[in-house]
Amino acid sequence: MRAVVSVCASLLLSLVVPGLSVVACTTSPAAEGEGEGEGEGEGEGEGEGEGEGEGEGEGEGEGEGEPCAAPTTPLGTAVLGAGFTVVDSVAAPEAPGAFVAFAVVSDDGGDTVFALRPDLGVERLGTWPTLASPDAPFLSLAVDDFDVAADFASAYLVADGRFFVAGFTRADFSGAIAIHDSAAMATATVDAPGNYHAALVGGRLLVNGLGLGGLTDAGARVWGVPDLTAGELVTASVVDFAGAPYSSFVVPLAAGGAVVGATDETTFENRFFGVAGAAIEGAFTVPAVEPTLVDPLVSIPALLGATALGDGVVFVAVDDTTTFAPAALRFLPVDGDGGAGGAGDLVDALTLPDACTSVGAVAAFPDGTALVEVIHAAGPAVIVRLAGPAT
Questions:
Q1: Three-state secondary structure along the chain?
Q2: Least reliable range by pLDDT among 161-170, 224-233, 329-338
Q3: For the domain 79-387, what is the CATH superfamily, name and number?
Q4: Furthest-apart CA pair in the chain: how many Å?
């Protein structure tokens, strides 16, 4: 029988599946291996022989197989797609599950990496590639009676050097977002039910959630910062899903604007639409101008994460919705402001052929590369900087 250890990825399935209040976890094999060995046992139990015979047992496994070997490279058993490269890598400062999200801020001093803990504490891990577990917390975004034992930290951290944004959701889908303004040394909050993901785009805070503001269902809402004026952006009610639409990811694009996703509550299918920068500004006009959603740029099965990479978006994709284990990082090239020029083919940036190597949180570097938390079953986690195909 396969032995597994759980590595929580802090994805709140409770925001996608009504009534399901759990945190999704990836799974990796423990030292006993992959669990479908080739033993020669002839009974109906768990044959444990060591040959390559097929065995006749019908038990829970046919041998224990080989254990996961200690990784000899930062990627372990993961396989890079054509055109993708690892720029550099560092040892993760803490074990998987310690952080639910990362953010990278660039200035003259380099790329500073921040991380969000499940208690909504923000940590400054250091300047890439010198990262370490901090001695003291950098900032707390735990607001509005957040209860770490009962509430769910949303799996995003938004940071641009001045603003730090994080949110949480309760089991009943109510929730809030905290926006810390470092210049004013003040933290404001906004009511944000089901805030699943968020991003700063051109000085505007886009939030993908459930019933935000005047929205009646899933969709994205935009706030100005720091004044927190709000404007409606787009609802997901126009998406023709088998089930009800739920919130998904929102990712800024290098050429401007963003992609905004919606998830089918029944099939977990995600569809992403392009929203131009001008449309985001249109949310603040009187009356507000809601952008027209055309055909989605991409339809993709269940996801655990998404972030910008080069001229597109990289997704943490799931193929098996019984385990929700990551299967690959898949890259979507997007052309133009808000995807005005369309999108290319979805390609594998990193495949995960077995459970010995998995991935956790992802985040964007300002230079167009991406931070990827790589999790090894037989070794410590690693954080790599991934570069996409040259454009």
A1: CCCEEEEEEEEEHHHCCCCCCCEEEEEEECCCCCCCCCCCCCCCCCCCCCCCCCCCCCCCCCCCCCCCCCCCCCCCCCEECCCCEEEEEEECCCCCCCCCEEEEEEECCEEEEEEECCCCEEEEEEECCCCCCCCCCCEECCCCCCCCCCCEECCCCEECCCEEEEEEECCCCCEEEEEEECCCCEEEEEECCCCCEEEEECCEEEEEEECCCCCCCEEEEEEECCCCCEEEEEECCCCCCCCCEEEEEEEECCCCCEEEEEEECCCCCEEEEEECHHHHHHCCCCCCCCCCCCCCCEEECCEEEEEEECCEEEEEEECCCCCCCEEEEEEEEECCHHHCCCECCCEEEEECCCCCEEEEEEEECCCCCEEEEEEECCCCCEEEEEECCCC
A2: 224-233
A3: TolB, C-terminal domain (2.120.10.30)
A4: 76
Q: Which pLDDT belongs to residue 20?
A: 35
Residues 6+ apart with CB under 8 A from 234: 219, 220, 260, 273, 275, 290, 291, 293
Mean pLDDT of the region 326-338? 96
Average pLDDT over residues 136-141: 93
Residue 61 has pLDDT above 60, yes or no: no
* CB of 138 closer than 8 Å to CB of 124: yes
CA dist 24 to 11, 48, 275, 294, 347, Å? 5, 32, 29, 32, 25
pLDDT of residue 283: 77
Q: Quick one: three-class SS letters along 125-136? A: EEECCCCCCCCC
